[in-house]
Design a protein that fits this description.
Chain lengths: 147, 147
């Protein structure tokens, strides 16, 4: 059996993030928040400047999942991981979306930066930053950009 | 004389970020980009999904500075720094803005996450992520939020 102690640091971090992304696709909020530390500070793409602490961010995930009917896309691309000792961060693009009225999945692209600490041998997410850029003139979020 | 080798790791990272922020306030693009590695990947608040590499991001900074007349505000708040060995990341809120037609500085708040590596003893920025959240219904960037 392969345990996280056998993996390279980058692979162990990516393994944590892939399990987190799978929990998002499964819309399993308990499995999502199991990756977070109690003092997580999250900058999500929508609604508020920040969510401070696990309970505030869990309520936000609950609200987000209530908005999404049907299957969900949530895939990390172009990920780059920097890790040394017990601190790591990863940046990448996330292709995400949900089913439209015809049952087809419409996706768009967001940017993600995720900060982690290794605590008692396990990688945990201490910070997330998700966003779309906006247009300076119209102030509209640019949700149709592709890499 | 205090050198970066004498500082705690967190203080050395914050010192790098405060010098970077001072370069932004001074609108000194050469001093800004002196903090970056050649392979920086930047997710800025406006325009594009990402800027890959120092030259692409330098051109973006040049274009941004051309838009800003008069004095500029750019102050990091609520910063949290995680560092181990030669890798660090920092998240915080940036109060930024420029002069309006009456010469007064109007500011707003953005979120920032900055990833760094220590290379030959000096901290360098390898990744930046700046953003405003947006409203799901109107798709408008939420530029009037305050902490």
């Amino acid at each position: 059996m392969t345990t996280s102690a056998d993996l390279s640091p980058e692979t162990a971090v990516l393994d944590c993030l892939e399990r987190w992304a799978a929990a998002v696709r499964a819309k399993d909020v308990e499995a999502i928040v199991a990756h977070y530390t109690p003092d997580i500070v999250a900058f999500d793409a929508i609604l508020q400047l920040q969510f401070k602490g696990l309970e505030a961010y869990r309520r936000h995930w609950d609200a987000c999942m209530a908005l999404c009917a049907g299957p969900m896309a949530f895939q990390i691309h172009e990920e780059v991981i920097h890790v040394d000792g017990n601190v790591a961060f990863c940046h990448g693009l996330i292709e995400c979306g949900g089913a439209n009225e015809r049952g087809e999945i419409d996706t768009g692209w967001l940017r993600a930066t995720i900060g982690l600490r290794r605590i008692e041998g396990e990688w945990r997410i201490v910070h997330e930053h998700h966003s779309a850029p906006f247009d300076m003139t119209s102030r509209q979020a640019l949700l149709d950009l592709t890499p």
